[in-house]
Amino acid sequence: MDNCNKEWEVRPPAKLTLEKLNKQDEINFELHKSDSQFDKIVSIMQKDIETICESLKTNTAEHLEIKGIMKAFIESADKKYVNYDVFSPIRKLVYGATGVILTLVLSSLIYLIIKQ
């Protein structure tokens, strides 16, 4: 086996072999270039993730503050506005009055149409 390797070492490579080796070198160069770009992208993404984590920490504090404000607003709204149980009888009266008025309007229109 060693004799075979020694014999091939001194022979110049064939033209097709040289072309394939050159193409492979170009492919290796492109792969190396894309690997370095990938490494850059990954490092940028890691920095972005760190920034997002820091933002989430500040957002959590702001979120808690907003929740406190909303809770205070809801409590003040409960004191200021009427709830559904208290409003239900008034709603029934308004719906009933509206129904009576619409019935009167429609019946008067029908009466006018039939009269002529």
What are the low-pLDDT stretches, counting only 5+ consecutive residues below 50?
A: none
Tell me the number of structural domains: 2
Share of residues in helices = over 70%
Count of DSSP H/I helices: 3
- Which term fits the overall shape? elongated
Order of helices and strands: HHH
Alpha carbon gyration radius: 42 Å
Report the biggest beta sheet as strand number plus sense, adding barrel if it closes: none
Average predicted confidence as pLDDT? 81
Terminal residue distance = 122 Å
Number of DSSP E strands = 0
Q: What structural class do you assign from the helix and strand content?
A: mainly alpha
Bin the strand percentage: under 5%
Structural write-up:
The protein is built from three helices and no strands. With 116 residues, it is mostly helical. The protein folds into two domains: 13-81; 82-116.
